[in-house]
What we know:
By secondary structure, the protein is α+β, with helices and mostly antiparallel strands. The protein has helices at 2-27, 44-52, 247-280, and strands at residues 36-43, 72-80, 86-88, 95-99, 120-126, 135-140, 146-147, 153-154, 178-179, 184-187, 190-194, 197-200, 207-209, 213-215, 223-225, 233-237, 239-241.
Amino acid sequence: xxxxxxxxxxxxxxxxxxxxxxxxxxxxxxxxxxxxxxxxxxxxxxxxxxxxxxxxxxxxxxxxxxxxxxxxxxxxxxxxxxxxxxxxxxxxxxxxxxxxxxxxxxxxxxxxxxxxxxxxxxxxxxxxxxxxxxxxxxxxxxxxxxxxxxxxxxxxxxxxxxxxxxxxxxxxxxxxxxxxxxxxxxxxxxxxxxxxxxxxxxxxxxxxxxxxxxxxxxxxxxxxxxxxxxxxxxxxxxxxxxxxxxxxxxxxxxxxxxxxxxxxxxxxxxxxxxxxxxxxxxxxxx
Length: 286
C-alpha cells in the first residue's frame, strides 16, 4: 500500500512538472521565434536501471527491476525546432530565417511556410557569472532587431547582432539599407557586413537560455557554419518568425495533464483510505 501511495505521489509530481512547461509554452505563443519545449517521462524503475546498469549491456538499456513500476519521473525535456510561420512587418531591420524550404523571393514568403529550424542568429551578451569571461554568444530565431544611433544592429534586449566573424555589426545609421537573402547588408551599393546565420551539427544538444534563445553550454553542440547559404537558409528582410506553438495542442495537453493529476490524486486518496482500514479496523476485537 505504501508503494501505491508513492507511485501516485510521483505521478502527481511528474504532471506538475509537465504542467509548468506546457503553461510556459502557452505564455510564449506570441513571442517571436519561440520554440516549443516538450517533455519525456520515464518510470522510476527504468531510470534507476540506467543509473546502476551493467555497461557491458547494450548502450542505454535498463535492466528490469521488479515486476511493478514504483513511480514515474520527468526524465527531461527537449526542444521542437520546427520553423514557425513568417509574418510581414515591413520594418527594414526585422529579419526572419527561412530554412528547409526551396529558396523563394522575399515577396513570396507566406504565413503557411513551415519547416525545420537549424539556423540561428548570433548575438552577444554579458555573462551573469563573475567568472564567466565577459561576452558570450547566444543563438536565437528572434529577428526583431533595431539600429542604435551609433549604427549597431541590436536585439530588443540591446545585445549586439554578430556577423560571420563574431564581430558586432555596425553600419551607417543614415544610409539606405538592404539586407539580401544570403545575409549581406548593402549600403550605397557596397557590402558593409554579413549577418551570421549559425547552424549546428546537433541542435538538440543546445541549452535553452531564458525563454527565447540558446547557448552551446556543455551539451556537445558545435557550430558547423556561419552563413545562410551553408545553413540552407534565407534571411528575409521585413519579416518576423512567429512561435511554433499551437494553442489547440497546448490546451489539449494541459487538459490531459490536469486529468492525469486528478487521477493520481484520487488513487492516493484510495490508497490512504485502504491503509486507514488496514491500520485501524482489521484485526479489531469487538
